[in-house]
Amino acid sequence: QREPHKARIWGWALPGANVTATIPNLALAVTVAADTDGKWFVDFPPQPASDGHSIEISDGSKIILLEDIAFGDVFLCSGQSNMDMTVGAVYDAQNEIAGSINYPNLRLATAARIKSDRPMDDVKSATYYNWERSSPKSVTGNASDLGWHSVFSATCYFFGRDLYQSLNGTVPIGLVV
Questions:
Q1: Is the CB of residue 120 less than 8 Å from the CB of residue 114?
Q2: % of the chain surpassing 70 pLDDT
Q3: Rounded CA gap, 32 and 57, in Å?
Q4: Which of 1, 15, 10 is nearest to 57 (CA)?
Q5: Considering only CA atoms, which of 92, 86, 62, 101 is closest in space to residue 148?
Q6: Which terminal Cβ of the chain has fewer Cβ within 10 Å, N or C?
Q7: pTM score
């Protein structure tokens, strides 16, 4: 998220471990203690719309590096059949797919459909990526696959693309199907 909202990241560590999340190019570091179950979360101070960041997470023994991080707006795209039609199945799909490369700060994620009787702490990806910049491969899974086996929701993609264009590409847009 971007300002005025705080961006939150979370994870798991040993219970009681001090976890530090750092954004080096912003000289920003936040330290928290994992709870008795090892769960932790960090809320970063509100940041303006931007990209090109990395986040380093350390519990003192292990370091995780997240790269190509952006602060922007995130939208959850949910529904039934209105979310099932993919970019590869729309009118003029080849041109739409080829043009997807023009929106580098349109970020895509597709959650796997998993049934659960209780809330889950994490979500698995339904694609080869967790988050990916808009591109022919990310909207279809394979640039040559133009059928129903394509990956990304057309409704979600066109909503995000139009919003991205209306903001002149100045705000990274995250789309989660």
A1: yes
A2: 94
A3: 11
A4: 10
A5: 86
A6: N
A7: 0.88
Question: For residue 49, what are the CA distances in angstroms to 52, 68, 72, 167?
Answer: 11, 14, 5, 11
pLDDT band at 125 (very low <50, low <70, confident <90, very high): confident
Which two three-digit tokens encode residue 20?
A: 């530090």
